[in-house]
Structure formats: C-alpha cells, structure tokens
Amino acid sequence: MIIKITIEPLKDKKISLPRHYNYLIQGFIYKNLQRHIAEKVHDEGFVYEKRGFRLFTFSRLFGEFENAGDMLIFKKNFILYIASPVTKILESFATSLAKKGSIKIGNNNLQVTSIEVLFSRKYESPLYVKTLSPITVYSTLLTKEGKKKTYYYTPFEEEFNKQIKDNLLKKYAVLYGKNSIPNLDFYILPERVSKKNEHIIFYKDTVIKAWSGIYKIGGANELLEIAFDCGIGAKNSQGFGMIEVYEP
Hints:
- It contains 5 helices and 18 strands.
- It is of the alpha+beta class.
- The protein folds into 2 domains: 117 residues, Alpha-Beta Plaits (2-Layer Sandwich), CATH 3.30.70.1890; 119 residues, Alpha-Beta Plaits (2-Layer Sandwich), CATH 3.30.70.
- The strands form 6 sheets. Strands 5-8-1-10-9 form a 5-stranded antiparallel β-sheet.
- It is globular.
C-alpha cells in the first residue's frame, strides 16, 4: 500500500530543508508512528536469518523549489510518498498526521493538507518503472590491508540485478513466514539510465551512491508487488528504492 502526503508551510512561509534530507524525513516518519510500532520497526525490524527488514520506503520530495547552497527552498508545498506491505505502519502514520494541527520537519512549522491512500494493484510482467527515490546496491569488501570498504554497484553490473533479486526473495520470506528462500524469478534492467542518473547522497555521515532512471522489471507477481510496496535494493527505510509504474 502507498500513501501520498501533501505538506504546506504555516503562515505562508517557504519551506527550507537541507539538500540531503533523507535522515530528517526518516525521523519524521518514526516520530509519527505509535511508540510500540516505531520501536519494533526501528530497533528490530522484521527478521530473517538475524537480519531485520524495516519493510517501508519513501520517495524524494516532489514540489517546486529553489537551490540555495546546501539548502532547498520549497516555494509552496511538497509531496511525499510512503509505501509498505505492513498496513499497520501506514495506518499509524496517517492517523497520527490526521490528528495533528501542525507538524515540524527540521526548523519548519508545517501542516498536512492531504493524505491519499493509493492501494497496490496487480502488476503484469514485464513492465517499466521509474524511481521515486534512487536505488542503491552495495557490498562490503575487504582491502588488501584488511580494512572494510563499501563498493556500490551500477545498474550496468550483473551484481546489481542479482542483489536486488536476492533482497526481494528475503523480504518475501519475511512477509510470508517462510524458513527458506523460494524459487521465484525477478530481473531488473536499465532502460533509460546514464551517468547523469547517479546520485551522491549523504545520510548522516555516510556517503551513499544511488541511481535513478527508468528500468524494465519482470518476474513473479509476488516479487513485483514486494518491489512496489517495500522498495528495491538496500536502505529502503532511509529513502531509497521506491518505484512507480512508468507509462510513457
């Protein structure tokens, strides 16, 4: 399920946010969940083989803005999309926002003017998608000196496709209570992706490389649904890997 939220400033002021705002938006989401849900999702997640999956993702912010150094100035409002296959996460978030007369993100006093529920639909393979937030895929490697190094894959490397599929299969196992990885097919191929679609994003003190663009995806319907509801790739709950159907 996906919800679309429109947020406006109070008192006709503009909205000023840092260019790298993922951490602020993630914190805003957790802050507006019921405490027991926020603690469960943040501290534990939904566990498969000792790894916790948060099972939600969110988009970039959509709206008219100006660049002001390290800040983005939204002139009127912005739209945020949040997706999750766990209904209680989105219900808790939407209910919390609906009850509040005002909210705060960063130093901005804001108000939610619209909350729309966009229910998931059945997807037919193959189909084209575009990113609502860029996709990140990586491995932690060891250098010759024995130090850990993060290597981010590009959409043109085979490992990009492989890791996204493996990640979706684990999410499937979590959601459907499976003890082993199922034999389901999935693939993702870059369709309209070039060097300009590479993004360098700072999350706290971490540098993350991620890719936007238009992709062709296909495979089992169960994995397609999870791709839309959970996000694809890594770090979904930090605002990466949200997609929507692309219709030229």
